[in-house]
Design brief:
This is SCP domain-containing protein. 45% of the residues lie in helices and 18% in strands. By secondary structure, it is α+β, with helices and mostly antiparallel strands. The protein has a four-stranded mixed sheet with strand order 1-3-4-2.
């Protein structure tokens, strides 16, 4: 199966199982985020502001990619920076045609997005990614298990 067909099949399945707000990928809008994703962006904004950093531009395509990764982990039962479907974050960005000069991601599996953000801040490597001044754009995706736990993906890029 061609990669685009595989993606379209996965995306269609995800929309049936996990409805999301769909919009064109040109501009960020709060309407394109689910409540947990919007909450996560607010936590990132608050945390970065506390350290004198601005929030990177929220990018609709990066949010969609982060959401795809979160759902990929949920559906395929793994928790890793290396997706069996897409590879690492750089491979995934290239797969979806994203131009970038640098990229990183934070992933969490937690009770809530608030706990996920607290875990990112308490880990030196995740905090370095989260607080990096080099990032120009970011996206957030959240997938929720039937039990209410969340998979959170934060994608950061420098363009």
């Amino acid at each position: 199966m061609k990669p685009i067909h595989r993606f379209l099949c996965l995306a269609t399945a995800l929309l049936v199982v996990f409805p999301i707000h769909c919009q064109a990928m040109t501009n960020y809008s709060a309407a394109m985020l689910n409540a947990q994703e919007a909450e996560m962006i607010n936590f990132v904004r608050e945390d970065r502001t506390r350290y004198g950093l601005s929030l990177p531009t929220i990018d609709a395509q990066l949010c969609e990619i982060a959401r795809i990764k979160a759902n990929d982990m949920l559906i395929n039962g793994y928790f890793s920076h290396n997706s069996p479907t897409y590879g690492d974050i750089r491979s995934m960005l290239s797969h979806f045609g994203v131009a970038y000069k640098g990229a990183s991601e934070n992933i969490a599996r937690s009770r809530t997005v608030e706990h996920a953000e607290a875990a990112f801040l308490s880990s030196a490597s995740h905090r370095i990614t989260l607080m990096g001044s080099q990032w120009t754009h970011m996206g957030v995706g959240v997938a929720t298990t039937p039990e209410g736990f969340v998979y959170v993906v934060q994608v950061f890029v420098r363009r």
